[in-house]
Amino acid sequence: MTSTGLGLRDRVTRLVEAATTPLLPRDYLDLFAPLRSGADLRGKVVAKRHETADAVTVVIKPGRGWREHVPGQYIRIGVDVDGVRQWRAYSVTSDRAATDGTISICVKAIPDGKVSNHVVRDLRPGTVVQLDQATGEFTLPAQRPAKALFVTAGSGITPVMGMLRNHLDELPDAVLVHSAPTAQDVVFGEELRAMAATGRLRLVERHTERDGFLKPVELAELVPDLHERTTWACGPAGLLEALEEHWAAEGIADRLLIEQFRPRVLVTGEGGAVTYNKTGTTVESDGATPILDAAEEAGLIMPSGCRMGICYGCVLPLREGAVRDIRNGELTVAAPGDGVLVQTCISAAAGACDIDH
Amino acid sequence: MTVLQKKSDNPVAHLSAEDVEEIGRRLDAIRQEVVDSRGADDAAYIRKVIDVQRKIELASRAVLLLSKFPPAWFIGTAGLSVAKILENMEIGHNILHGQWDWMRDPKIHSTTWEWDMASPAEQWKHSHNELHHTYTNVVGKDNDLGYGIMRVDEDQKWIPLYLAQPLWNFVNACFFEYGIAAYDLELGKNLATEERRNDPKFKAAAKQVLKKIRKQATKDYLVHPALSGPSFVPTLAANFVANLVRNLWSHSVIMCGHFPEGVETYEKTSIEGETRGEWYLRQMLGSANISGSKAMHVMTGNLSHQVEHHLFPDLPSNRYAEIAPKVKAIFDEYGLRYHTASLPKQVASAWHKVFRLSLPNGWMAATTPKNAPQQVAQLYKLTTGGPKVRRAYDRAQRAQAEQALAA
């Protein structure tokens, strides 16, 4: 485009903005085309199908601004539950080649899960949801491993399913050890078994109601060559901790990649009143709840990202006070004027706090 | 109205302190019920209103592109007026109160919203949410009482300048959005002294308002007319009329909220150490409702439920109608006056007060066709006579009132 062209475009934009003030042109465009390019990233639910009794695959047509994801990555999705916007992270499970510009996530209803139960039971095709671009490091390297091991449990299969659907043919030797209460509870059970039947994947199903939870020692028996493999693991915190310990003890910690969707709470802070100076709000926050969650519960709009201490999308300056990292108990103290940047998603109040927001 | 504390027949004298706190507890319970049941239907409501409002505005502005044809002008102007009223009342006012913050939608949130109004949202939220809603009807504290330019209470001293207040009030009604902007800036106070004029805080705020006004005016009086090409002048006129209609409407609705005869006002000292129950009681008696149809409630931004709004400023406006009977039941049980009447009645009542108090206390009531010449002569004396004459008149009035009371 020529410089005159750019100038003209700028002028037109400015004119349209002058015509819509105090709103922006996009506030009107959103009424008619919420998925257009240039809009905040959103998606429309186009289909929903049950994988098991309590897990569904949700097929979403993302807006024009969607950038391709790498299989294994997750997206954050904002869904209105009882009128309140809730954000959660889910792995993208779809096959990039087979889908028609749509992506899929798989959601399993967890007990008392506000969002998961809503998605599984009430979310209707046609609903527009809020999205963030895919992110995450839990992916296959460009140089595919000669030998791969996937250890998953429950809905932990979802990022791995994304990898298998897209890249199984590029993996010369892949083993999946998956735990679920019973055979019926295996998310993507049929599809996984079909993959195994073609000989491209060695599938070990562990039905924990009968066999009990998987122990790393048993894993070593099931997969004798696990030392030679690069391992991707995703599942409940207990399983991941056990695997990390085992891999560390064997001296091969660098060959294990794990994915988790919630920070592991190891310690709790003391709690305290958190004041947000710009909104003039004070929120009483306990020592186990991240200040991000407590603030949102009180109706504040907070910056947020992964909600597990990774992406730094939630960072705000702590003007004064103390917070504790709920993952390791580390205390961060700010004196007036310090403005220490803290991650609100993994920090709980450890006394009265004054946050610049 | 005389402040409640000085009235001979104090409307809350029959309530014990325990009664007042019980009223507070019951109102808290009503509030909690609504908070606990806010949900998807409420969210759908506000989104629908916003959607409809924006579509009406777009359609009206589109029709106005052909405004040199009279039918297009009339339809477009009517539509734009309705859109501007909805935007200010049911949408803007209520979002800026934080009524919809619980949805956690950054696009419908009190901290991000900006409205089609001369006053920037930020400044209005301070003067309205923090000052008016806290100090409701407290003489000397609540600037909404007469907006600092009018006498709306017997306890405000009468000076001849107030004779012109019906005119002020009408001018203010026509240009209400600018009146509000000036009021949020506390323009009168801040322009009064050199020091205040040069206060960087005031200067920054004034600059912010001027910028907002420039943008608003550019949209309504330049860009939209220019886009109408040969219909430039009729479109400009249409925008002017729509703003005028919106201003007159919102001014009328807002006058009805606290100005009608019989709404209570309070002494400054009366709110020191006020309890939650007492605060509620002040709001109950300091507000007046407008009765009418569902459409009327929406067009007033549900400020027709002013009583409920002042008790619970942050509850979603669509729920006021549902709690109104429960609130009224509390008024009835405790022998309090639930002030409600139709829009024409409340507007007339508010204007009556504006006229009555533009004159010295008791003058209007004492004037009959028979004694009119003497009364006018007296008014002339009071107007031209200086403070001494007026003080003497006030003393005579008070003595008369005491005599009447003794009798």
Largest sheet of chain A, order of strands side by side?
A: 4-3-6-1-2-5
Approximate shape of chain B: globular
Number of domains of chain B: 2
Number of DSSP E strands of chain B? 2
Question: What are the low-pLDDT stretches of chain A, counting only 5+ consecutive residues below 50?
Answer: none
Protein name (chain A): Ferredoxin-NADP reductase
Cofactor (chain A): FAD
Keywords (chain A): 2Fe-2S, FAD, Flavoprotein, Iron, Iron-sulfur, Metal-binding, Oxidoreductase
InterPro entries (chain A): 2Fe-2S_ferredoxin-like_sf, 2Fe-2S_ferredoxin-type, Beta-grasp_dom_sf, Cbr1-like_FAD-bd_dom, FAD-bd_FR_type, FNR_nucleotide-bd, MRET, OxRdtase_FAD/NAD-bd
Gist of the model:
Chain A has 357 residues and is α/β, with parallel strands linked by helices. Chain A has helices at 3-20, 25-32, 114-121, 157-167, 189-197, 208-211, 216-222, 237-249, 291-297, and strands spanning 42-52, 55-62, 74-81, 84-91, 103-108, 128-131, 147-153, 173-180, 202-207, 230-234, 256-259, 272-276, 281-285, 315-325, 331-334, 340-343, 347-355.
Provide an overview of this structure:
The complex is a heterodimer of chains A (357) and B (407). Chain A is an alpha/beta fold. Chain A folds into three domains: 42-131, Elongation Factor Tu (Ef-tu), domain 3 (Beta Barrel); 147-259, Rossmann fold; 272-355, Ubiquitin-like (UB roll) (Roll). Chain A is built from nine helices and 17 strands. Chain A has helices spanning 3-20, 25-32, 114-121, 157-167, 189-197, 208-211, 216-222, 237-249, 291-297; strands at residues 42-52, 55-62, 74-81, 84-91, 103-108, 128-131, 147-153, 173-180, 202-207, 230-234, 256-259, 272-276, 281-285, 315-325, 331-334, 340-343, 347-355. In chain A, the strands form three sheets. Chain A has a six-stranded antiparallel β-sheet. In chain A, strands 12, 13, 14, 15, 16 and 17 form a six-stranded mixed β-sheet that branches. With 407 residues, chain B is mainly alpha-helical. Chain B folds into two domains: 4-340, no CATH class; 362-406. Chain B has 18 helices and two strands. Chain B has helices at residues 17-37, 40-64, 70-96, 121-132, 165-174, 176-184, 187-192, 194-197, 200-227, 232-258, 276-285, 294-299, 306-311, 320-333, 343-358, 363-366, 372-384, 387-406, and strands at residues 289-291, 340-342. A two-stranded parallel sheet of chain B has the order 1-2. The two termini of chain B are 22 Å apart. The relative contact order of chain B is 0.13. The model of chain B has no long low-confidence stretch (mean pLDDT 93). Chains A and B meet through helix 1, helix 2 and strand 4 of A and helix 2 and helix 9 of B. Chain A: Residues 38-141 form the FAD-binding FR-type domain. Chain A: GO terms for molecular function: 2 iron, 2 sulfur cluster binding; metal ion binding; oxidoreductase activity. Chain A: Keywords: 2Fe-2S, FAD, Flavoprotein, Iron, Iron-sulfur, Metal-binding, Oxidoreductase. Chain A: This is Ferredoxin-NADP reductase. Chain A: It comes from Klenkia taihuensis.
